[in-house]
Each structure stands twice: as structure tokens, then as C-alpha cells.
């Protein structure tokens, strides 16, 4: 399974699949189906193959489901489920599609029905944490504290203690922008920091929280934004950046499905922290593969990434 592609001369590009070439081939076929408004048998077989191939790499399975759900739109996942009502991945694709569609303005999605789909998917493959992760995502959409959270979190941790998608969903849910508070985010980070292996798929959780806090502080403008530079001189920020900058860009250090997304995150944070040589080293390690976030906070994400990537390549 590829981790990083470092191809000299490669142009910056945005690929939802990152360096997962097999996923990219299927995504493009699914997009063709979406254009036609139909789902043919060969494409259904390709989706099943790429999802089954992930096996018990739950992190990669979640990545592949999210990418395919975004490519498939609203109707195709439902068609696939109708053809395969007892196939767990088909149910999960429909549930992910519901979550993505529900996040769009004006959408009307029955999230109770989505949670029922998640419960059915959990019954079909009890070892998989993904149905519980999607269930958590539905709670985020409702923007209100839920008594279900603790039980769902226990189910996830029992199956895959360091699942990247689940930890990011929990971080969003507990944030002051959604259903929680700054103190709840700190509690989560303290718990994770004490136990998480350094190369776990959720290794970028603390840095994600830091970048979100930075962007939140920049949002209002004025005095708050002027003081944002001091943010990256805090002890927790310096410690997180020191560790990540030293280890993450190394070949083979990060091996999870969205490692390139974490490198994008690190490069962005290093630029904001005025650490240009480390940022350039990290950008080169991406091989030119960009992600929408966090670059989209300041305009077109590919344009912003390309600007910094070109400068990094000049100094090779």
C-alpha cells in the first residue's frame, strides 16, 4: 500500500484519495456513473473489491468509504444498497452519503434512519468501528449534547483505539463550535496524549486542534488576529510542532491511509509558526498532493498550497 509518492517535478494536485491509487481508479468510475445517473454491475463490483481489500484496516476502510460517498452523491449509494441489502459496506456507504448530504444547506435527511442503518451495519460486522463512527457523525450534525456519546465512544475504542476518523469526529463534537467546550477538548487531548502511540492513525489529533484554534482566533480579525502569532509560541504548540516536524516527514514514519493529509496539516502549521525550513521539508514530503483543509481557510486551497510548494521546491 503506498504511503507517500515523492515524484520529482510533479505538479501540485488535489486528489480526494490521496496516494491510494486503487481508490482513485474506483472513484473515477463512480463519478462516471454519477454523470449517467445509473450504477452498473461492474462498478458495484469495483466498489465492493476496494472496500473489502481494506480488510480490518479500519482507518483505510473509513477513508475509502468517505471518498466514495463524496463521489457517489445521494442516489447511487441507495441503489447499491437495494442491490445488496445484507452487504455491510453498502449500508455504510449510504450512511456516509447521508452524513455528507445532511451537512449541505437545505438538505433534508432523516438522521434517525441513518442511525438505524448504522445499527444494522454494526450487526452485520461487529468488529468494525465504522458504523459507530458514522453514528457519532450524525450526532455532530444535530448540534446538541447527546447522552449517547459516551456509549458510542466506548464501542469505538473497544474495536479500534486510535481510529483517525473517530477521533476527529469526537474532536469536532466536543469543540465549542458544536456540542462542547474548550475544556472538553482539552480533556480529550490530555487523555489521548498520555496513551496514544506516536505513529497511530490519530497522531494528528492535537495538531488538528491547534490549527482549528488558530483559525478560530484569526476569524474575528482585529486585536484577536494580531495576537495569533503568539499562539504558536505556547508550550503545547511548540512541543507538538517539534515532535511532528522531526518525525512525520521521514519515509515510512506515518503509514496510515491519510498520512498525506497530516503532512499538509503540519506544513500549514509550520508556515503559521514561522518555521520555513521545516515547512519546506514537510511540503516536499507530500510529493505535491494537497488537501482542501487547512489551506482553504485563506482562499483557493490548491493555489495556496501550490504557492508554498513551489517555494519549497526552489530550495531543494
Provide an overview of this structure.
There is one protein chain. With 316 residues, the protein is mainly α. The chain contains 16 helices and 2 strands. The protein has helices at 21-36, 41-53, 58-72, 75-83, 88-102, 111-124, 130-142, 149-159, 164-174, 182-195, 205-218, 222-226, 235-247, 259-272, 276-285, 301-314, and strands spanning 13-14, 289-290. The chain has a two-stranded parallel sheet. Helix 1 packs antiparallel against helix 2 and helix 3 (58-72) packs across helix 5. The longest helix has 16 residues, at 21-36. It starts with 12 loop residues before the first strand and ends with a helix. This is DUF4034 domain-containing protein.
Based on secondary structure, the structural category is mainly alpha
CATH architecture classification name of the domain at 14-139: Alpha Horseshoe
Q: Provide the spatial order of strands within the biggest beta sheet.
A: 1-2
- Topology as a string of helices (H) and strands (E): EHHHHHHHHHHHHHHHEH
> How much beta, percentage-wise?
under 5%
Give the radius of gyration: 20 Å
Q: Give the CA-based shape.
A: globular
Protein name: DUF4034 domain-containing protein
In short:
The chain has 16 helices and 2 strands. It has helices at residues 21-36, 41-53, 58-72, 75-83, 88-102, 111-124, 130-142, 149-159, 164-174, 182-195, 205-218, 222-226, 235-247, 259-272, 276-285, 301-314; strands at 13-14, 289-290.
Amino acid at each position: 500500500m503506498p504511503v507517500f509518492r515523492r515524484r520529482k517535478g510533479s505538479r501540485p494536485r488535489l486528489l480526494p484519495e490521496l496516494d491510494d491509487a486503487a481508490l482513485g481508479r474506483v472513484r473515477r468510475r463512480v463519478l462516471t456513473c454519477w454523470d449517467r445517473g445509473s450504477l452498473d454491475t461492474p462498478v458495484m463490483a469495483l466498489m465492493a473489491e476496494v472496500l473489502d481489500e481494506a480488510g480490518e484496516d479500519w482507518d483505510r476502510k473509513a477513508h475509502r468509504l468517505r471518498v466514495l460517498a463524496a463521489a457517489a452523491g445521494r442516489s447511487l449509494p441507495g441503489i447499491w444498497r437495494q442491490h445488496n441489502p445484507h452487504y455491510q459496506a453498502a449500508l455504510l456507504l449510504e450512511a456516509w452519503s447521508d452524513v455528507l448530504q445532511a451537512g449541505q444547506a437545505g438538505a433534508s435527511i432523516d438522521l434517525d434512519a441513518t442511525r438505524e442503518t448504522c445499527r444494522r451495519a454494526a450487526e452485520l460486522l461487529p468488529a468494525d468501528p465504522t458504523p459507530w463512527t458514522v453514528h457519532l457523525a450524525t450526532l455532530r450534525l444535530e448540534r446538541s449534547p447527546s447522552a449517547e456519546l459516551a456509549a458510542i465512544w466506548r464501542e469505538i475504542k473497544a474495536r479500534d483505539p486510535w481510529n483517525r476518523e473517530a477521533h476527529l469526529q469526537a474532536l469536532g463534537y466536543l469543540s465549542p463550535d458544536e456540542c462542547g467546550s474548550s475544556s472538553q477538548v482539552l480533556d480529550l487531548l490530555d487523555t489521548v496524549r498520555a496513551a496514544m502511540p506516536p505513529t497511530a492513525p490519530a497522531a494528528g489529533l492535537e495538531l488538528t486542534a491547534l490549527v482549528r484554534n488558530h483559525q478560530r482566533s484569526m476569524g474575528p480579525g482585529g486585536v484577536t488576529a494580531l495576537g495569533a502569532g503568539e499562539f504558536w509560541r505556547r508550550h503545547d504548540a511548540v512541543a507538538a510542532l517539534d515532535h511532528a516536524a522531526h518525525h512525520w516527514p521521514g519515509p515510512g514514519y506515518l503509514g496510515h491511509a491519510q498520512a498525506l493529509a497530516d503532512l499538509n496539516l503540519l506544513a500549514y502549521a509550520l508556515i503559521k509558526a514561522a518555521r520555513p525550513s521545516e515547512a519546506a521539508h514537510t511540503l516536499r514530503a507530500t510529493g505535491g498532493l494537497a488537501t482542501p483543509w487547512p489551506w482553504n481557510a485563506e482562499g483557493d486551497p490548491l493555489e495556496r498550497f501550490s504557492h508554498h510548494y513551489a517555494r519549497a521546491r526552489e530550495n531543494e
